[in-house]
Specification:
The structure is a single chain. It contains ten helices and 15 strands. With 396 residues, the protein is α/β, with parallel strands linked by helices. The chain has two domains: 152 residues, VC0802-like; 165 residues, Rossmann fold (3-Layer(aba) Sandwich), CATH 3.40.50.150. The N and C termini lie far apart (73 Å). Helix 2 packs parallel to helix 8. Strand 10, helix 9 and strand 11 form a beta-alpha-beta unit.
């Protein structure tokens, strides 16, 4: 027999609401700091994310402003489900007509770990069945499935036979800011680029008028994230899709107010943005970077130029932060190619950036000795499954 239905809830009136922001491995500490700075309450680091609390505004604000989160989830229920029927009954017990209508669309993301239900696709199917069967039995109609831009995206995480059913307020991964039309070769995720820039203390440097320079800028992700951060631009401001926009509990007036606040902050922030420059030896990469800068509204604020490391010249202006994400696999062909590249990078840093801070992100820290610089700090971050090091230097 199906479990009894849970009562309806009004998330616009209920406070505090508990949320969960997912993130890449290693980003939990800075994400917790970021959420506290937004005003979130009861912030707790957990496995692969951060729990926090607040009114509905806290969830909306995290979707709009978080540079590090992957998704923002609103948990609806938790229950024990060692078999598929328990999963079906537990999901069906919720009042799904609080969240979408029969003319709406849904999608289900299901992941499982250390549980008796081992197949994520089958789990997602049972969740979808529970929801549409509830509608069909009560109305004779059912919502449709839209895996790309659903009205409601449901996230189910099954861990040790305990299911957490959540609404995905973000709807799509938050690192997709909407500005990157071209990624080039092996691009960094925007959230990882933001973590690199944040760990490098770029904000403190920018407040003093220091420059940001990327010697190997590729398609410009580090530059763009650095510019958005220094100009106080909400990373989600140009996104046209979030998972709550067609949710039945959505508060349009609240969201409109947050957007207007973000637009005002962007206008004020861009006016004080310090110089930002990028270089790359690949003309196609520079072409991609210029297009991404245009989409981000930064084409008049950030300069990118075709230039190799060998052509680097001393930078003028207030000393600031120079960053680089050199290749660390086999993209150049041989280990000797990579060793020569890192040596050339070290030479450019010493020749052109005396008095600056430098940050080099690499998945092959053994190559860093070729730069002949001594790192004064190191952070571990993950580029996908690859453990990487962010090396910080003071250039004498």
């Amino acid at each position: 027999m199906p479990a009894s239905r849970s009562p309806a809830g009004d998330f616009r009136l209920s406070t505090p609401i508990r949320f969960f922001a997912t993130c890449a491995k290693g980003m939990e500490p800075p994400l917790a700091v970021e959420l506290r700075a937004m005003g979130a309450d009861d912030v707790r680091e957990t496995r692969a994310g951060v729990e926090f609390a607040g009114p509905l505004e806290a969830g909306y604000r995290a979707c709009l402003w978080s540079r590090l989160a992957s998704r923002v989830l609103l948990p609806l229920t938790r229950f024990h489900c060692p078999d598929p029927e328990d999963l079906y009954d537990g999901v069906r017990a919720l009042n799904w007509d609080d969240h979408l209508g029969t003319d709406g669309t849904l999608a289900v993301d299901f992941s499982t770990s250390q549980s008796l239900i081992t197949h994520s696709r089958y789990g997602a199917l049972r969740v979808k069945d529970a929801i549409v069967d509830q509608f069909r039995d009560e109305t004779g109609l059912r919502p449709s499935v839209d895996t790309r831009y659903p009205d409601v995206r449901i996230n189910v995480y099954l861990y040790r036979d305990e299911a957490t059913v959540s609404l995905d307020l973000s709807g799509d991964a938050l690192h997709r800011r909407g500005y990157r039309t071209h990624g080039g070769e092996a691009p960094l995720k925007e959230s990882l680029a933001a973590a690199i820039i944040g760990y490098s203390r770029w904000l403190a440097i920018a407040e003093k008028g220091g420059l940001l320079v990327d010697l190997m800028c590729g398609s410009g992700t580090l530059l763009i994230e650095g510019a958005l951060m220094a100009a106080d631009v909400a990373p989600g401001l140009e996104r046209d899709y979030f998972g709550f926009l067609r949710w039945r509990e959505h508060d349009p007036a609240l969201w409109a107010g947050l957007l207007e606040e973000a637009r005002q902050r962007r206008t004020a922030g861009l006016a004080r943005l310090p110089p930002i420059r990028g270089y790359d030896r690949d003309p196609l990469a520079i072409e991609f970077a210029r297009e991404n800068l245009r989409c981000a509204g930064l084409q008049d604020r950030v300069t990118v130029t075709v230039r190799s490391l060998a052509e680097a010249t001393p930078e003028t202006g207030t000393p600031g932060l120079v960053v680089a994400n050199p290749p660390y696999g086999e993209r150049l062909g041989t280990d000797s190619d990579l060793e020569a590249l890192y040596a050339e990078l070290g030479g450019a840093l010493k020749r052109c950036f005396s008095g600056w801070r430098a940050a080099v992100f690499t998945g092959n820290p053994d190559l860093a000795h070729c730069m002949r610089l001594g790192a004064d700090k190191k952070n571990t971050l993950y580029n996908g499954a690859i453990p990487c090091k962010l090396l910080h230097y003071g250039i004498g």
